[in-house]
Amino acid sequence: MKLVNILLAGNQEPELTALERLLGATTGNKVYRVTRCGTYPEAINAMLKSRFEAYLLYEKVQGYEGLDLLHEAIRSNCTEPIIFLGEHYNKETDETAMNLGAAAYFSIDSISGHVLDSCIRYAIKNSRSFSALKASEDKFRIIFERSKDPMFVTDISGKHYDVNDAALEYFETTRAEFLRANAASFYTDEYQRDRYVTEMERNGFVTGHEISLKLANGGLRYSSISSFLQISQHGSLKLYYVTLHDITALKARKAQPDGTVLLADQIRNPLTAVNLAVDEICAQLHGQPQDVKYYLSIVKENCDKINQLTKFR
């Protein structure tokens, strides 16, 4: 089994030695590999370079306050858990350490090996989960900011929380104006908005709904909207992550007559004139030679056939 690497930083030799032995006795020295560090520069260097999976930080390090070291490490984005240790319990130190970002606070004179072991394992697991979530959020942020499609974050009430540059360009507005506006105000059809929210609340996602949207300048665009719902860790906030695909040009093309239909119209109009002319000629040739009427009947018959072929609608 792979050992978990831990840095124990501090100068109180007897207390820290006892703590190290306590942890080893609890786990049988089969879980943790503990490295000792007694200087401030060594400790902060290890923390900033993520050399260990967790840090046990005593309240005094080479004459410096451990709280100062904790503050510098957290401020410099140390991502591994830091468990703060004091010789005796102090409520003020406890609150300060936790506010600074410590994973836990314990007093050496009262802690047990089992409690410390559980705390370290939980802190490492929680830190890894947070790091994975942060990495996922960073990837989404890159996609969000670089996407050519309009993307924004809103909620059921229509309040906006974030928007990318492509959406600002799409709606022809500024970031401040967009974030002030309610999402419902962009819809031209209230029913489309109600249907979208209903499906989001029922299924947690929407894919490919066609909607019409108003631009800031009063213009109109058609979009295919896709969204998914994200609930915050404590369930206090439900956010809609929205992506729009512009289909305005597609709708315009569909609204135009098909090229074949246009050609049929172009043929039918002169063809109708020919048919009328043939009918008039036949009427005026009443009693005239039959061969002329015969040829005209051929013209008439074939014009009728062409006329039938061009009736697309």
Characterise the protein shown here.
The chain has 313 residues and is of the alpha/beta class. It has three domains: 4-141, Response regulator (Rossmann fold, 3-Layer(aba) Sandwich); 147-253, Beta-Lactamase (2-Layer Sandwich); 257-309. Helix content is 51%, strand content 22%. The chain contains eleven helices and twelve strands. It has helices spanning 13-27, 40-48, 66-75, 91-100, 113-146, 165-171, 175-180, 190-203, 248-255, 259-284, 290-309, and strands spanning 4-9, 32-37, 54-58, 60-61, 64-65, 82-86, 104-107, 151-154, 160-163, 205-214, 220-231, 238-246. Strands 2-1-3-6-7 form a five-stranded parallel β-sheet, with helices on both faces. The protein has a five-stranded antiparallel β-sheet with strand order 9-8-12-11-10, sandwiched between helices. The protein has a two-stranded antiparallel sheet with strand order 4-5. It is rod-shaped and about 135 Å long. It starts with a strand and ends with a helix.
